[in-house]
Design goal:
Elements: E1 3-8, E2 14-21, E3 24-32, E4 42-51, E5 56-60, E6 67-70, H1 128-131, E7 137-144, E8 153-155, E9 160-161, E10 165-167, E11 174-176, H2 183-195, E12 204-206, H3 215-238, E13 243-246, H4 251-259, E14 266-269, H5 272-285, E15 293-295, H6 302-305, H7 309-315, E16 319-321, E17 327-332, E18 336-342, H8 352-374, E19 378-383, H9 390-404, E20 411-413, E21 421-426, H10 433-437, H11 453-468, E22 475-481, H12 482-491, H13 493-503, E23 506-512, E24 520-525
Parallel strand pairs: 1-14, 6-8, 11-12, 14-15, 18-19, 22-23
Antiparallel strand pairs: 1-2, 2-3, 4-5, 4-7, 4-13, 5-6, 7-8, 9-10, 10-12, 16-17, 17-18, 19-21, 20-21, 22-24
Length: 539
């Protein structure tokens, strides 16, 4: 299998990174220069409000929008005896803990797992109003972008990723990523980490990229993270809140750091400055792989050469055709994502049950791919074709779980419901690709439908009936879309004439193609030309 990473930064406003396997687009990352990309950044903030009813605090961390900090994201240092001391950052002079025999684990969002050992008494956190008060300073990291009217989600569990290790000061001990399942590999990595003699009180976790790495490589990564942490501690002590303490690398460095491994055959970058920046990073952390980095100098645009533009265009479509026939239909709402599987022209010589199973297996693999490409998160409901046999239902669940394993976002998949639905959740870190690229339509306000000319005409007549009851109105001018005006002048002319007689007024209907379908504007005047309000908001 040939795996390549393509980095397109020919347009300064946008950076796009595609991962392709044997010519098929498997992962896509897009970042706009105009967008606030705060996830991973560390700030020294100030508590500005406490909400005991939802056990949350709102933090001013200097970006113009207050962040949301829930009690579950407050690290234990903040409610130890003696209270919170902003002069002592987490991880500094903390007592070290014994190495976790079960292996410390990293959550998908980079924070330490709070899962308790069997038989251990659960830690009870005090109410948030007893931990903080207004004006307190707090060290936070952005773990989720703000969406709509909601501000960014914050956590006091600080996580700083390197190439092979993650520095987690709040953890206070050593561990191995949960994604590494082999017990022998886990023990070997933990022993290697212990041999590096990390400072007491700081926590480190070995990433999946650290498998089969030499001790020297892990040592170099640890030294880099320790130098960075010393700089962060110095900034925390010398700068008052709110202030930014640490900013994540740009998307190119971040993606190479987190995704690139020996399986990637080549990296192509189409901009010289970005190429030099990536080359410098690789020489520093992965010198063995520098020869896999290439500057693309072809005349044809990079993504066009690999026929990705048409594929990216299809990402935003509602319906996704499947290769063997059939399709999946993806509808994104505010609360959840609904995915429907349609058999379409898919047919086999087998029974209807076997055909449904084969169709569902294809759809499950494509669903996992589309969720990655579109970066859809939250609650996802998959409506597969009904199957009667239990072995087919269990088999489909396994296929979907296996397909989702390569997803870097944290996911949870439930068993098939009595209605034949498979419900799942996928970690939502930032708005989906669709929300990032598109704005709501001003005509339909994101509903994807507009009122018909008949519906708008009925609304106009209701408004004219109201105007006819006002004794001082002598002239009404109605401005609507051209199609609505045509409907009123042709099919509602008799009703309008009757209202003119009853109200002693004249009505003028003006239509324009430039007005959107639901535009409705009434201008009411008396016999002296003075404007009279109906007391209702018009569109």
């Amino acid at each position: 299998m040939k795996k390549e990473m393509l980095i397109n930064v020919s347009q300064p406003e946008e950076c796009r990174i595609a991962i392709i396997e044997d010519g098929l687009l498997e992962e896509l990352y897009i970042e706009r220069a105009s967008a606030d990309n705060l996830v991973g950044n560390i700030y020294k903030g100030r508590i500005v409000n406490l909400e005991p009813s939802i056990q949350a605090a709102f933090v001013d961390f200097g970006v113009g929008r207050n962040g949301f900090l829930h009690i579950s994201d407050v690290e234990s240092q903040y409610f130890r005896q003696g209270g919170y001391d902003p002069s002592k950052p987490i991880g500094e002079d903390r007592p070290s803990k014994d190495d976790d025999k079960d292996g410390d684990e990293k959550r998908g969002d980079g924070r330490p797992s709070r899962r308790q050992r069997p038989g251990a008494r659960p830690r009870v956190k005090p109410p948030i109003q007893e931990i903080f008060k207004r004006g307190d300073e707090v060290l936070v990291q952005v773990i989720k972008e703000g969406m709509g009217t909601k501000g960014p989600t914050l956590s006091t569990y600080i996580s700083i990723p390197g190439r092979y290790l993650v520095l987690m000061p709040a953890l206070g001990r050593l561990g191995v990523s949960r994604k590494i399942e082999d017990d022998a590999v886990r023990r070997k990595l933990r022993d290697t980490l212990l041999e590096l003699n990390p400072p007491k009180g700081l926590g480190f976790i070995v990433r999946t990229a650290g498998i089969d790495r030499h001790q020297k490589e892990l040592s170099r990564d640890m030294a880099y993270l320790l130098r960075l942490w010393k700089v962060i501690v110095r900034r925390i002590k010398t700068h008052p809140a709110p202030i930014d303490i640490y900013e994540e690398s740009d998307m190119i460095i971040r993606t190479i750091r987190d995704i690139f491994n020996s399986d990637v055959d080549a990296i192509y970058i189409d901009q010289p400055a970005a190429y030099e920046r990536a080359k410098e990073f690789l020489q520093l952390v992965m010198p063995r792989f520098v020869n896999r980095l290439h500057l693309y100098e072809g005349k044809e645009p990079l993504f066009h050469k690999y026929k990705l533009e048409s594929e990216i265009g299809r990402i935003h479509k509602r319906e996704v055709p499947l290769r063997a026939g059939g399709s999946i239909v993806i509808d994104q709402t505010e609360a959840l994502v609904a995915i429907d599987v349609n058999s379409g022209t898919f047919r086999t010589d087998d029974s209807a049950e076997e055909s449904a199973y084969r169709m569902n297996v294809q759809a499950a693999k494509e669903i996992a791919r589309q969720l990655r490409l579109r970066d859809l998160g939250g609650v996802i409901v998959n409506d597969f074709i009904d199957m009667r046999k239990e072995k087919h239902r269990r088999g489909l669940e396994r296929v979907l779980r296996d397909a989702m394993k390569r997803d870097r976002a944290r996911t949870k998949i439930l068993r098939t419901s009595p209605f034949g639905l498979i419900e799942m959740t996928r970690q939502r870190i930032r708005p989906s690709l669709k929300r990032s690229v598109y704005a709501d339509c001003p005509c339909c306000n994101g509903r994807a439908v507009v009122k018909t000319a008949e519906s708008m005409s009925i609304e106009v007549i209701r408004m004219l009936m109201l105007a006819s009851q006002q004794p001082h109105i002598s002239r009404v001018t109605v401005r609507v879309n051209d199609e609505v005006a045509s409907y009123l002048n042709n099919r509602k002319r008799k009703d309008i004439h009757q209202l003119e007689n009853e109200g002693g007024m004249t009505v003028q209907i003006l239509g324009s193609e430039d007005l959107y379908p639901e535009h409705l504007e009434l201008d009411c005047r008396d016999d002296k030309g003075q404007e009279i309000s109906l007391g209702l908001a018009t569109k």
